[in-house]
Amino acid sequence: MNVPAHNVLFAFEQDFAGTLRCIPMCVRLKLDLVRIKMSLRQWSQIGADQRRVLLDLPCTTPEQQHVYRDTLVALIERHCDEPVKELVKHDDALWQDAGAVPECVIAQATSDHVDPPSCDSWQALNPLRRFALVKLARSKHENENFVPAMREFGLLSTEM
């Protein structure tokens, strides 16, 4: 699987992820890849230096994913008052399939009164961007960033 740069922070998430107060999309992708569900509470309990480690640590190859998972589990066990939780539901087919725009992305675009990505533009997005759009489309509290993300990814006119 082709996963892009491991520590990208998008412009639409700078107000909350730039400080690493919230879990940035690139870390959320890594969590999905290693199949660990991390709460915002756990994220805040591990401390800024450890959050930076999780941001910077690559998680592309199977070996890197193994190291990332071990590091993450150790940090949660050492610093958090909640246990490590395995990710039960895995939506990798939605963002990994570059050949079809997921229904949740189409539905969110329709709800926001913007055109959904075309198949060609969806295919041209890197996996992290597709992952972000799927997460934003499926999130009840973060979907206000869906349109800014679409704009940032070149899928909408900047005039909107």
Describe this structure in words.
This protein is mostly helical and 160 residues long. The chain has ten helices and two strands. The protein has a two-stranded antiparallel sheet. The model has no long low-confidence stretch (mean pLDDT 88). It comes from Asaia lannensis NBRC 102526. Pfam families: Nitr_red_assoc. This is Nitrate reductase associated protein.
Quick recap of the structure?
InterPro entries: NarM. By secondary structure, the protein is mostly helical.
- Percent of residues in helices comes to 40-55%
Structural class designation? mainly alpha
Overall average residue pLDDT: 88
The Rg value, from CA coordinates, equals: 16 Å
Query: What ranges have pLDDT less than 50 throughout 5 or more consecutive residues?
Result: none
Adjacency order of strands in the biggest sheet? 1-2
Largest sheet data: 2 strands, antiparallel
Q: Note the gap between the termini.
A: 34 Å
| Dominant shape | globular
Strand content: under 5%
Q: What's the order of the H and E elements?
A: HHEHHHEHHHHH
How many helical stretches?
Answer: 10
**Secondary structure tally: strands:** 2
Pfam family, one: Nitr_red_assoc
Organism: Asaia lannensis NBRC 102526
Protein name: Nitrate reductase associated protein
